[in-house]
Structures are given as C-alpha cells and as structure tokens.
Write a structure and sequence with these properties.
Number of domains: 2
Number of helices: 10
Largest sheet: 5 strands, parallel
Distance between the termini: 49 Å
Shape: globular
Order of helices and strands: EEEHEEHEHEHHEEHEHEHEHH
Helix content: 25-40%
C-alpha cells in the first residue's frame, strides 16, 4: 500500500475536468485506470498496490504493469472483468475512452475523467489525481518540476520558428491539428504547426504536405508505429524538409512522462537543421 505523508480526509467530492462530480467515501485502494499515461502516473505516485485494473495498451512502467489485470482496450471495456475487480475508483479520459462505456461505468462506480489539451490541463490533472488517491504532496511536487522544466525550455525558443507537421497515422495519413495536446507540445518545442488551421486529427494527402513545405516532418512512434523506413520514403518525397522519427510519448503522454519532456524536446531542437 502507499506510504504517503498526506493526511487527506475522506469523504471528498471533486469536480473533474469534464465538469462532473466524483465522490469518494474513503481513500481508494482498488483503482482501475483506462488511460496508459495516467496508469504510469499512478505508479509514479506510489500506487502500485492500489492499481488493480488497466487496459491492454497500458505498457508503462515496464515490468510493473505486466501482472495487473487487463480490462480490455481504451475504446472497448470488458465490463465483466471490471465487475470482478470491484474498483472503488476508475480514472479515464474524454478523448481516449468512449462515451457510452464511461456512462455505463458511472452507473456503478466513482469515475473521474480528464480532458487534456494544454500543459495547464495536464498539470491540473496530475494535482487532482493526487488529491483523489491521497498523494497530494507528491503530485504537487511533480507538477512543479514539470512546470520548471518546461518553463526552461520555453525560454530557449526564439522568434525563428520552424514550420512542422506531426504525423500520427498512415493509410490514410493523419496529422495533429489544433486543439490537441500534441499541438501544444509542438509550440513548446518552438515549432509552428502547418496544420494548425485544421481541428484535431485531419486526414491529409502527400500532395497537400508537399504544398505546405514544412521545415520539419515528424513521424510518431504511436499510435501508428512509424519506422525509419517510413522516414526514408517521405524524405525522398520531401527533399527540402527534414523528416525525423520522434518518440510519441513525449508529445502525447500527459502524466508523469512530462518529467522528461522538457529534456527530450530540447534534444530535438538541437537536431533540427
């Protein structure tokens, strides 16, 4: 069980990031997480014993999630398994989970939902989860470290922004547009998203990409697992752009992974021509 210094009193009621109230009678000891980055956060807050259910996409922390019961995917829950686990708290996310499944879970369990677009949203999520699970001090310290590291990164940005496109999928090609956490991380890296005039995750053609002539084309490692071979293919089509493979977790995981985002984005800036 967690060994934390916080003396959070229960019961508590917290309004989540979707404006819904989540009420807990006691400190949760049986938690189901439906989001990979938030699963990692719970473990990094010291909740390894309390996390009793995760999705099949929850891969981190490596070596610690292997034995945790899987409750299906982020878009398709196994309700029978969740019933067997008897959770006293379920944590999800608006974008990564599906509305009907969350509605069904709310009929039987306390559910707290995040809705992340900006860095401030992510930091608020970390702090609220800390309150929910009785790890407020540790969560606040984590949020402060993330804020400091990202502030340091922002100060190194110049007015010489490079234009960029961030690909998340192939066949059809899809990119990150505005209203996404990825777009926010691109700005933090000093990049101007050439598809910021389009919302969310639009489909684009290679012809459109060639017309926009971005300085940098980033191919992410998830959700589509782009490889170096894809980099070489696009580089041949875009000889005047710099095509690079990037670790998607530092652009799209909004929990404790953000502790390393500042350093990773700084390293990327060094390789941009």
């Amino acid at each position: 069980m967690t060994d934390l210094n916080d003396n959070q009193s229960f019961p508590i009621s917290i309004i989540d990031q979707m404006g819904e109230t989540c009420t807990l009678a006691t400190k949760p000891i049986r938690i189901v997480s439906l989001v990979p980055s938030q699963t990692e956060l719970l473990f990094d807050l010291g909740l390894s014993d309390e996390v009793i259910g995760i999705t099949k996409f929850c891969t981190d922390p490596v070596g610690k999630v292997n034995t945790v019961k899987k409750v299906g995917g982020t878009k398709k829950f196994n309700f029978d398994v969740i019933t067997e686990l008897k959770p006293d708290l379920i944590i999800g996310n608006k974008e990564e989970n599906y509305e009907q499944g969350i509605k069904q879970l709310k009929q039987d369990y306390p559910v707290w939902m995040s809705d992340i677009v900006t860095l401030d949203d992510a930091l608020e999520m970390i702090q609220q989860v800390g309150v929910l699970v009785g790890a407020e001090t540790k969560a606040n310290d984590m949020a402060e470290k993330i804020r400091n590291s990202t502030n340091e990164l922002a100060t190194t940005n110049t007015n010489n922004e490079k234009s960029a496109a961030y690909f998340i999928w192939q066949k059809p090609y899809m990119v990150a547009g505005s209203g996404t956490f990825i777009d926010e991380m691109m700005k933090l890296c000093g990049l101007r998203n050439v598809f910021s005039d389009q919302d969310r995750y639009p489909e684009v053609s290679l012809e459109t990409l060639q017309e926009t002539k971005p300085d940098v084309v980033m191919l992410s490692t998830e959700p589509y697992p782009f490889k170096q071979s894809h980099v070489e293919e696009l580089q041949a089509l875009m000889p005047d752009s710099q095509v690079v493979l990037v670790d998607a977790m530092y652009f799209s995981w909004y929990g404790s992974r953000l502790l390393g985002t500042g350093k990773y984005l700084q390293s990327l800036k060094q390789i941009f021509k």
